[in-house]
Amino acid sequence: MSDSAERAPLFEIFSSIQGEATHVGERHLFVRLAGCDLDCVFCDTPASRRIPEQARLFLPSGVRELPNPLSADDLVAAVAALDEESGPHHMISITGGEPLLFVPFLQAVLPRWRTRGGRILLETGGHRPDELAAVLGHIDVVMVDVKIASSAGIETSATVQRRFLGLASRVECTVKVVVSEATTTAEIESVASMVSEVAPQAPLILQPVSGAKFGPPTGAHALLLQRAAMRQHHDTRVIVQTHRILHLR
Ligand code: SF4
What we know:
Elements: E1 7-8, E2 10-17, E3 27-33, E4 54-59, E5 62-67, E6 70-71, H1 72-86, E7 91-95, H2 103-114, E8 120-124, H3 129-135, E9 141-146, H4 149-152, H5 158-168, E10 172-179, H6 185-198, E11 204-208, H7 219-230, E12 236-238
Parallel strand pairs: 2-4, 3-7, 7-8, 8-9, 9-10, 10-11, 11-12
Antiparallel strand pairs: 1-6, 2-3, 4-5
């Protein structure tokens, strides 16, 4: 049985394609935790920042409701049921919200999947380095969402970002930055320079914003931002959110 420290609020569990960044197109089993300590203006999952009474498990045979907070045992059983009906999956993607708010829970569930050969991708805002250090041994891929003012409306301190990226680069790491019509080459050069210095093996993904206070960049603007970034960090790619094209979660 799981103790209370090994419980966490879930928002939803579902199977879909990974629509972002370097693992785009792979079939992932998504575990979306509820609750976030940031306030990005581009947030595409605002409902997941609050904790629902029931988490939703999207099985092909129907939606099942699970009372929050879930125990580690409950989540492992839910993931096994979804994998049975929708698998196989390339990876389990842990997303949110901000998953690193729930370190004891992650420490309880992640080793159970990995010992069975499952690969784990963690998507995070990149602002909690101590918490990343506590779970990094159970993670295969870290997708760090670096916040910039022209799309997120907030910025994480450079010191914290550098420490986080330095830790994340001990495993496979991808840095994603959402860009808008307001994003400047100076902003992107600053991010690219940091990635080049602290996590030189990490691809830098420029992801055009979708639906927020700021509109997306034009194609020409995206090319301009990519060129500016590539002068600092060669492996810079422009990738849109592909799951949206197919109207998937
Ligand atoms: S970190 Fe993610 S969940 Fe939190 S506000 Fe930003 S986009 Fe939304």
